[in-house]
Amino acid sequence: MPSHRVGQSGGTDMPSRPIVLGFSQLGSESDWRNANSQSVKEAAKEAGITLIFDNAEQSQRKQFEAIRSFIQQKVDVIAIAPVVQSGWEGILSEIQEAGIPVIIVDRTVDTADASQYVTLIGSDFYEEGQKAGKYVLDKMAASTGPIGIVELKGTEGSTPSIDRGRGFHDTITGTDKFVFLGSEYADFTHEQGKDKMRSLLYRLGGDIDVLFSHNDDMALGAIEAMEEYGLQPGKDIVIVSVDGTRKALEQLIKGKINCVVECNPLLGPNLMQAVNEIMEGRTLPKRIVTPESVFTEVTAEREISSRKY
Ligand code: GZL
User: Where does the record place the Periplasmic binding protein domain (predicted)?
Assistant: First the structure.
């Protein structure tokens, strides 16, 4: 397949054939991830872009294998949703040597050379953590403390886990009435969220007043663990989560979750626009941030009917 690149002058010999995009998706660990994949597939079809999609099942090694396959196939653009932040310099150099432009999607990568990718399309996870922390400050304003907080963290080393945690902790630690009792990595999955919440309850039981979960799937698992333990989620323990899936909003309406910070997975249209602009030789911003909101018991009813995922 002849490869077409952005011309030296910045112009490009637009291919007479459909643009080919290789997308390394990190996995299918959560409803958010599946909605993200669906958005990319639908947007590619809508844009007439040929999509080569690979699901790495949360393995960075499998992402590298998929990317090397994209290079061999001489795709026009490579998009990567990186499972963790570190370890990408080598593979990004291989792509650069092949002359293929790169778009980073959703999470980010650590690299000393920002020229190794054209743009990053995704959320501001630190701000999402701050929003979660602000909700807890408001919700617990009348309490004198001590208020025991536990945390279910996403995939270790992933941008959302690192930055949501930083944003939340930076917001909460301003007052001494909050006590962080413990945190567990639960890999953004429902199953591990339930399992790790069980162990936190076993260790800390009635001392837990607040759970901050880095995503909805882990929060939904934690709700099951709390009910097994004989506690009322949303009442005995305040729950704040991130994503905004339909299942989480349903629990929000039932009062079993108290706040869901939105993280928008529908990045497909932004990605395809960026691909087209690269192929047209246009300059893109280094960062494209998706707009997001916060859902509480008050706004959930209004939002749930419009949720696509
Ligand atoms: C955030 C995304 C996270 C979601 C999880 O943009 O990377 O990964 O919050 C998903 O649900 O597994």
Answer: 23-281
